[in-house]
Amino acid sequence: MATRRFNICSSAVVLAVALAVPAAAPAGDSVATRTPDLRNRPHNKGLARFKKTVARQAAKFPTAYFLEASKRTRAVALTFDDGPDPKLTPRLLAVLAKHKVKATFFLVGSRAKRYPKLVKAIHAAGHAIGGHGYQHVSLKARNQYAAWWHIRATNNVLQRILGVRPAFYRPPYGAVSDRQVAFFAKRGVKTINWSVDSFDWDPKRNAVERITGEVLKHAHDGAIILLHSGSWRGNTAKALPTLIAELRKRGHGFETIPQLLGIPAIKRVK
Ligand SMILES: [Zn+2]
Fold first, then answer.
1. Which end of the chain is more exposed for a tag (fewer CB within 10 A), N or C?
2. CA atoms of 160 and 158, how far apart (whole Å)
3. Domains of the chain listed by start with CATH number
4. ∠ at Cα 136 (159, 109), nearest 5°?
5. What is the pLDDT along the chain (270 residues), one digit of tens a residue?
């Protein structure tokens, strides 16, 4: 039923009518109308498996694990993983400032420690910050305590620099076990993956036009879009102005992850 309703809503006629209606959703209509999914078409078996896993986890943990907005909204969230990086992060910040877009940066703890000024610059510009592992390693196969160590160590660094601890996290490679999701949620940290992958991380698919093409092909209301702020992602910064302009032209606004999901940005420190 939910899927059917989404299909009807995606037709051009109804969409045109919907656009004329005020943005605020009526009471009781704040949940998503379809099962959250990774929208990209997988081009290998690993990605096909990943797509299934994330859809299953989003259905299993509707308040602790997110691929997209859980409310009706035309807004999308741009998210940048793997920073901070002394070359690329300032370039991304400059483009975002020029276009008046607030985004979300998922920072690697050891890199945040090394570049505290960049962490402060991201925060001062009004972007949201979450952790992305203390080192960039897959933690899915580890027990929940070992994975939690990465979140805590990263949040300790961020708290020393910014005075606040993030309340949300993105696992490196999007890889996280069900047990870890539940364990983190109990400790006040929500897990954030994505619904649209730009493939800017893939050297075979990250020409500027391919990054914009892939995102624009799959972008949707409430999308969480995966991009990167690691050192060799120069094309991400080049693709960003077109990406922002095109998404705006289609009527999408930009929100940070806490805004898009209606979740706290930071944890209260006891
Ligand atoms: Zn990453």
1. C
2. 5
3. 45-261 (3.20.20.370)
4. 10
5. 333 333 333 333 333 333 333 333 333 344 445 689 999 999 999 999 999 999 999 999 999 999 999 889 999 999 999 999 999 999 999 999 999 999 999 999 999 999 999 999 999 999 999 999 999 999 999 999 999 999 999 999 999 999 999 999 999 999 999 999 999 999 999 999 999 999 999 999 999 999 999 999 999 999 999 999 986 777 999 999 999 999 999 999 999 999 999 999 988 665
The alpha carbon of 5 and the centre of ligand 1 are apart by a number of angstroms equal to 34
Residue whose tokens read 């490679």: 173
Whether the model clears a pTM of 0.90, i.e. scores above it, the answer is: no
Q: Which of 81, 82, 197, 200 is catalytic?
A: 81
Q: How far apart (Å, rounded) are the C-alpha atoms in residues 254 and 244?
A: 9
Catalytic, out of 127, 132, 220, 228: 228
Q: What separation in Å is there between the alpha carbon of 22 and the centre of ligand 1?
A: 37
CA of 78 to the centre of ligand 1 (A): 14
Q: Distance, CA 254 to ligand 1 centroid (Å)?
A: 21
- DSSP three-state, residue 230: coil
Our answer to whether residue 81 is catalytic in this structure is yes
Distance 228 CA to ligand 1 centre (A): 7
29 is catalytic: no
